[in-house]
Design brief:
Length: about 250
Amino acid sequence: MRIALLTEIASPYRIPLFNALAAREDVELTLLLLSRRDPRRSYAFHEDEFRFDWRILPGRELHRGLRWVVLSRGLGRALRDLRPDVVVVGGWNQPAFWQAFVRARRDGTPLVLWVESTARDARSGAGLLEAAKRRAIGWASAFVVPGRASADYLASLGVERARIQVAPNAVDLEHFSHRVREARGRRQELRRELGLEGCVVLCVSRLSPEKGVDVLARAFHGVPGRLVLAGDGPERARVAAAAPPGTRLLG
């Protein structure tokens, strides 16, 4: 089965899943990327970890604040070259995604919609956008979501549960296990380097509103221990202001 998967970037937490899919003998996977990186994220481009075919569509990027739009070219040509049996589209927030919807519908190619949106992401008063989403849902043969919240959101838009498959975001356990074993041997040395004593609570997260790290920071006041936050994002200043004295922000 030839699968063309259109997505914004190759997020690090998706690479193990893509590699596992590409490793199947009955699958030929090609990723069509809109860009090497998302300017709103600090992810590196881990090309050395890819075990699948991929290409980046040419285009122009527009970025302002938390808004990022990629005006891609060459999607139609790429799909003609690949002749996929299935087109998987990673959302509905980019023009190229809607081009893929129309192209798959015109060519009669089954369309799978990968949705990470939740009810929390829905914008009040965005009636036109919600109507467009319902149209896209009507074109899709099946749906892939990372978890229950996204599945519930699709169900609220009228999608039957039987058409929704959960594919959790993944990590390379072998890679992290190796790094953990290395770090354990230097535990006391690392604690001294970071100036950490006693009980330490570590939170690894992107500092963005939907993560709620500011809630953790406020709740930690009065807790006998040290809070260490590893991550960065647009909420860094807000989280730092909410955190108790002595909190370490590692970035």
